[in-house]
Amino acid sequence: MPNLEHPAYPAADLLHLESLVPCRESQVSMLLSIFGERQQFSFPSLFIYGHTSSGKTYVMKTLLTTLQLPHVFVNCVEYFTSRLLLEEILIQLQGCSSGTEQTSPVHCDTLNDFVRLFKQAVASWELQDQTLYIVLDRAEQLREMEANILPAFLRLQELTDRNVTVILLSEIVWELFRPNIGCFEPFTMYFPDYSIGHLQKILSQNHPPEYSADFYAAYINILLGVFYMVCRDLKELRHLAALNFAKYCEPVVRGEANERDTRKLWKNIEPHLKKAMQTVYLREISSSQWERWQHDGGEPGQLKGLSAHTHVELPYYSKFLLIAAYLASYNPVRTDKRFFLKHHGKIRKTNFMKKHEKTSNHLLGPKPFPLDRLLAILYSIVDNRVAPTANIFSQITSLVTLQLLSMVGQNDQLDGPRYKCTVSLDFIRAIAR
């Protein structure tokens, strides 16, 4: 029995829509109830929110396109000023009314011009009083525009005296939108995150035709078992599934196992999925590079990207400052003379091997150090002579701003500021190379 039912739309269209939006039937059913029939006045404005990759944009596009409802779809990130946004809405309306993609330029400087031109465009479209839907994706960008834009969209139906509904799609809650002076409250609707069962069902639909659905579903189950705790993004999981499926099939292709040998397939894919954990969300290498690296049997250290910290753009002396800060954070103060002076004299080894110092300093974390110690180590590790100019001190401030160094305590202490180095040993090794 179909989950989507509405007397105003054909059953075949609703059945096709249900197949296109798996695990979002309840949200689509709610939207259809709000929309009503084509000629009915819908709610003036809707606010739909939820985390990224929860299906807001996809469901709205699919719903409006499948049921052939008149609509305008605009991404507020692409049209980041009020003028660009209003003109794009009018251009799309003009293109729909003329039936061609080539449209004449539209100039809309004020909201009054938009209301006037909007009425003309809707009248020329011959909608027969059907509801027109204006969908504004990434609607949080509206908060950066003029103060009258958001309230005007929320009550556009009243301003234009037309059958129009404005739908705002956002990743943040309505309370962060509401102006201090108040405005028309939209109907709010929440899209929850996909559960692991929903992700399993959605991802399993993309199985290659040369393999059975059960075989691909078992692969998706393994993939979610590894990545679900660190990644709930459907787009990222779909990318990872497509990227690593060839490696999962290798024993089957070579004839070493069949599709039911789950244990052999898991042992083959497990180390590669763990390596793929290094690049979740980063996109630091292309898909072709990752496949080539898997085929060659590379090691994790061979990845050239952000996670390996092999490419950091810092000024020349900022790199030496960061190295000096790391040495000051992880070396005891009394070792400075031993490490950074050429003629430090004889030092007994027992002085540096006390019982409580046998634990690695990397396990204990970075220690704070004063500014004068940082500069003293800097002067000793740089080959040429460095003058303590304002440029050096400004670079220290920049490192703090970049959160590569952190300031400890107050800046107005009598003994001067104290700092900590917050980067890892791999980061310092990459810079030192």
From TrEMBL:
SUPFAM superfamilies per the UniProt record, alphabetical: P-loop containing nucleoside triphosphate hydrolases
Classification via InterPro entries: AAA_16 (IPR041664), ORC5 (IPR020796), ORC5_C (IPR047088), ORC5_lid (IPR048866), P-loop_NTPase (IPR027417)
Domain (Orc1-like AAA ATPase) ranges: 21-167
Chief localization: nucleus
Entry GO CC: nuclear origin of replication recognition complex
Domain named Origin recognition complex subunit 5 C-terminal: residues: 314-433
Transmembrane segments: none
Subcellular location: Nucleus
Recorded GO MF terms: ATP binding; DNA replication origin binding
Designated name of the protein: Origin recognition complex subunit 5
Keywords: ATP-binding, DNA replication, Nucleotide-binding, Nucleus
Quaternary context: Component of ORC, a complex composed of at least 6 subunits: ORC1, ORC2, ORC3, ORC4, ORC5 and ORC6. ORC is regulated in a cell-cycle dependent manner. It is sequentially assembled at the exit from anaphase of mitosis and disassembled as cells enter S phase.
Domain ORC5 lid span(s) in chain numbering: 216-283
A Pfam family that the UniProt record links to this protein: AAA_16
Its biological purpose: Component of the origin recognition complex (ORC) that binds origins of replication. DNA-binding is ATP-dependent. The specific DNA sequences that define origins of replication have not been identified yet. ORC is required to assemble the pre-replication complex necessary to initiate DNA replication.
Family: Belongs to the ORC5 family.
BP GO terms, sorted: DNA replication initiation
